[in-house]
Write a structure and sequence with these properties.
Layout: H1 2-37, H2 41-44, H3 49-53, E1 54-57, E2 61-64, E3 69-73, E4 77-81, E5 99-102, H4 106-109, H5 119-126, E6 131-134
Parallel strand pairs: 5-6
Antiparallel strand pairs: 1-2, 3-4
């Protein structure tokens, strides 16, 4: 008698788990279908540093527009201006001093940082015997750098 009650409880527990699993799978499938049918691109399309000051490039995907400038609002509002090479930096002029080139993504580019607040600008003021070049491009990966 006790064995049949235990067997019945196990059967009910497995049945409950199966129903919960099927319900969860059905709900996930329904949500997946709704999200595939809904056009949510508007949530991803906004004014960012890339949409305001970058242009399509066949090799890189996008590249900064030389001499472009814009006001960028992410966590805070900053002013972005690109030089003749398309980098958010001062104009590069070789002057015989050792040159330190920094490449990278938004960290080097300086998202949410005004000119003068980025680490390359702070280094420039500390290492006057070197030429510091900030060649960071927001959104770039190692393949584009």
């Amino acid at each position: 008698m006790k064995a049949s009650i235990a067997r019945e409880r196990v059967h009910l527990a497995l049945r409950s788990c199966g129903i919960a699993l099927l319900t969860t799978l059905a709900m996930l499938a329904a949500v997946e279908m709704v999200l595939r049918l809904a056009d949510l691109r508007i949530l991803r399309e906004g004014a960012s540093e890339r949409s305001l000051t970058y242009d399509y490039d066949a090799a890189l995907g996008w590249a900064p527009i030389p001499h472009s400038q814009s006001v960028v609002t992410t966590a805070r509002t900053i002013h972005a201006r690109h030089n003749s090479l398309g980098f958010r930096d001062v104009e590069f002029e070789p002057d015989g001093r050792p040159t330190m080139l920094f490449i990278g993504d938004s960290f080097v580019w300086g998202v949410d940082a005004e000119v003068g607040e980025r680490f390359t600008d702070l280094m420039r003021s500390q290492l006057s015997g070197n030429t510091i070049v900030n060649a960071g491009v927001s959104g770039y990966g190692t393949d584009q750098e």
